[in-house]
């Protein structure tokens, strides 16, 4: 019966991947039409950022991924898991690579990889899915708190951020109370809402700050003179639009939507560079995960070969 589960998930994963490819093509086509006639400006903006600065941006992406992975480790341990940090970080490396194409696909890959390498020391899949909720809750709360940065770019009424903060705050309080009353089975994944909460929140904050710094750095390097609040607004847009299946076109679409008034060509180029540095950071993380797994496998096999008895 368990053997049919992986195959039953394949159509769902394929649909997600196909939707991401379709969304990427649609958004890329729309951006291409918008940039028609601005090719020279777009190309010049792409060449404006020095390589060393883009390397720093990629490094900031790695910092963000490491911090969020450690926050995930806190949530998994709070849910009753005993998996080692190294195994969990390897699984996260695989998942974050898949996230470049689609966020939900990355989550599925991360959890599937963790369950495959450590089935006896991790909670079941439903609890692992619930373990994402505390992290997402913190991220959504930060989006609500800093949603005032969207007032100018999107022309939102001043009271929209106030309502967002009130609704989000109420939801967080309700979720925390719920997690305190339901601590078993599926709901064990919510344990980080009341156990290890401070550390988890601090790690998510580090990840968010690294992403804001990356946005600001790339935008300024390309010549888009923005404030830290603009970089926050861009991150909020990327977080929100990231729920849609638009794949690698996320960065450029978000940048044009939020900062298009600074110049469509320049902001689109900045979005492309954000996607490139983010992908490079994710590839670097995934490369470490694969290499570490291969090295660990060889080390584990070597002693067995060394003590293998010889036959006459």
Portion in helices: over 70%
Instruction: Extract low-pLDDT stretches.
Output: 1-8
Question: What percentage of the residues does DSSP assign to strands (E)?
Answer: under 5%
How many distinct beta strands? 0
- Main pleated-sheet profile: none
In N-to-C order, the SSE pattern is HHHHHHHHHHHHH
Termini distance? 45 Å
How does the helix and strand content classify structurally?
mainly alpha
Alpha plus pi helix count: 13
Briefly characterize the structure:
With 312 residues, the protein is mainly alpha-helical.
Report on this structure.
The chain is mainly alpha-helical. The chain has one domain (4-295). Helix content is 76%, strand content 0%. The chain contains 13 helices and no strands. The chain has helices spanning 4-34, 39-46, 51-78, 85-99, 103-117, 125-130, 132-145, 151-154, 159-181, 197-222, 228-241, 250-259, 264-307. Helix 3 (51-78) packs across helix 4 (85-99). The chain starts with a helix and ends in a 5-residue tail after the last helix. Mean pLDDT is 84; it is low at 1-8.
